[in-house]
């Protein structure tokens, strides 16, 4: 019997042991040299704390509000694909764990359980992530099904006009299963002699012509709020405001698209300053500790999205593993808040951290 993990990183080790190499490489790998993959994690480690002492932290409160929904912590589950590769119950197990923790789950369009199966598995707040396809009717149908099934927002991924070069998947000739969400709409069975069939599917279906003017079309097919995921610059944050999105996720796609983009935590503040509080800003990428969540909140994020750790928890211990990943991160965040002198989320300020940019000024 394996020992109980005491932190999120230990779930990755268990997942590596539990999964076939092809699937572990798919979940863990990044694009090309994987520079950004490493930087997503390491950039958090270069941010230091400036804790306050003699603050009453006998009671702490992690609760917040996300798009009008009250949740007990600023932790959400990011959209990640094909959970049945990690565990036979797939996204249904992930959804049950999220619901047990009262945590918002963003379901991937590439889920191995259908939109409806996940919605009927348990009560919970869920968003749905989607791309815009060359065949717009596919996007429209998926969005309509999500809305009818009670999903509360649409998360539009905007950083993938084409799929990034994921060399582990190419070497392994990654084979993706048939995706039930697309049954009756399009076949996801693609053969390729050059490597990953997932890349072949994406190249054949993603709409590389998608531009800012098309956000109006996405808004026209749903009454749900639209969050765009994949913003890394001030310029794109301003454009997002201009087209009227309901929220922004600062994301580099888990370092799986364009390598040598900056770590998301490194550009979070730039996006937050551009938005000026008009819509919520979220962030994903590289979050492995409650201390990381605190740092993101101090730089202006309203909440964080957790991707790979959730899949690792699922692979290692199923629904229970996902629940433990969420609980560990929340417990670590609560302790970090107490040790930093912040009894509530609103007490966390920019002055509680020190980035590399701050250090010369602080040393004068």
UniProtKB/TrEMBL annotation:
Top EC group: oxidoreductase
A Pfam family recorded for this sequence: FMN_dh
CDD domains named among the record's database cross-references: alpha_hydroxyacid_oxid_FMN
Chief location category: other
Keyword Flavoprotein: yes
GO biological process: defense response to bacterium; hydrogen peroxide biosynthetic process
GO CC annotation: peroxisome
Family: Belongs to the FMN-dependent alpha-hydroxy acid dehydrogenase family.
Cofactor dependence: FMN
Superkingdom classification of source: Eukaryota
InterPro entries: Aldolase_TIM, Alpha-hydoxy_acid_DH_FMN, FMN-dep_DH, FMN_HAD, FMN_hydac_DH_AS
A GO molecular function held by the record: (S)-2-hydroxy-acid oxidase activity
Subcellular location: Peroxisome
Catalytic activity of the protein: a (2S)-2-hydroxycarboxylate + O2 = a 2-oxocarboxylate + H2O2; 2-hydroxyhexanoate + O2 = 2-oxohexanoate + H2O2; 2-hydroxyoctanoate + O2 = 2-oxooctanoate + H2O2
Keywords: Flavoprotein, FMN, Oxidoreductase, Peroxisome
Designated name of the protein: (S)-2-hydroxy-acid oxidase
UniProt EC number: 1.1.3.15
């Amino acid at each position: 019997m394996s020992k109980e993990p005491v932190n999120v990183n230990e779930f990755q080790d268990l997942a590596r042991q539990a999964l076939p190499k092809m699937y572990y490489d798919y979940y863990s790998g990044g694009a090309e040299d994987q520079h950004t993959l490493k930087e997503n994690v390491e950039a958090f480690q270069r941010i230091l704390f400036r804790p306050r002492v003699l603050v009453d932290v006998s009671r702490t409160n992690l609760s917040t509000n996300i798009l009008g929904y009250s949740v007990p912590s600023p932790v959400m589950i990011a959209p990640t694909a094909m959970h049945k590769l990690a565990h036979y119950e797939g996204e249904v197990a992930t959804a049950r764990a999220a619901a047990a923790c009262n945590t918002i789950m963003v379901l991937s369009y590439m889920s191995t359980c259908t939109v409806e199966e996940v919605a009927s598995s348990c009560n919970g707040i869920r968003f749905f992530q989607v791309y815009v396809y060359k065949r717009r009717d596919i996007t429209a149908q998926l969005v309509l099904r999500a809305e009818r099934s009670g999903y509360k927002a649409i998360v539009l991924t905007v950083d993938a006009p084409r799929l990034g070069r994921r060399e582990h998947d190419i070497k392994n000739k990654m084979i993706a299963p048939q995706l039930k969400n697309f049954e009756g709409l399009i076949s996801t069975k693609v053969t390729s002699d050059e490597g990953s069939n997932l890349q072949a599917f994406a190249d054949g279906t993603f709409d590389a012509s998608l531009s800012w003017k098309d956000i109006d079309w996405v808004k026209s097919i749903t009454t749900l709020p639209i969050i765009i995921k994949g913003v890394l610059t001030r310029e794109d944050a301003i454009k997002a405001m201009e087209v009227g999105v309901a929220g922004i996720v600062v994301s580099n796609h888990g370092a799986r698209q364009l390598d040598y983009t900056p770590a998301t935590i490194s550009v979070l503040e730039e996006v937050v300053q551009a938005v000026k509080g008009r819509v919520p800003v979220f962030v994903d990428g590289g979050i492995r500790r409650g201390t990381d969540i605190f740092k993101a909140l101090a730089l202006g994020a309203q909440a964080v999205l957790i991707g790979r750790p959730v899949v690792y928890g699922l692979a290692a211990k199923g629904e229970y593993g996902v629940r433990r990943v969420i609980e560990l991160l929340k417990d670590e965040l609560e302790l970090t808040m107490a040790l930093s002198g912040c009894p509530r989320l609103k007490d966390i300020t920019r002055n509680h951290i020190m980035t590399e940019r701050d250090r010369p000024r602080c040393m004068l």
